[in-house]
Request: fold
Amino acid sequence: MTFTTWAALGVIKQPPLLLGLAFSLLVPLGMAMIGVGLYFVGSLFLPAKIEAARALFAATANEGSTPIGQDRLGVPWRF
Reply:
């Protein structure tokens, strides 16, 4: 960031305070765009994981055996 500011000060003939203000407005925008990009990348992989988990649950739920016990929340478990 220091080199970018120094290079911009050499090329753009504006007061340093104005250039610093412009960079301070661009950095949060860039971070927000990175966050949005990570969200979209995650949305590409997450549905495949959900479908795999749903198929695994359906396979174990259809076995027809009764659960051995329950935990404190009432969720059945088997060993």
The chain has a mean pLDDT of 77. Residues 1 and 7 are 10 Å apart (CA to CA). The first strand starts at residue 69 and ends at 70.
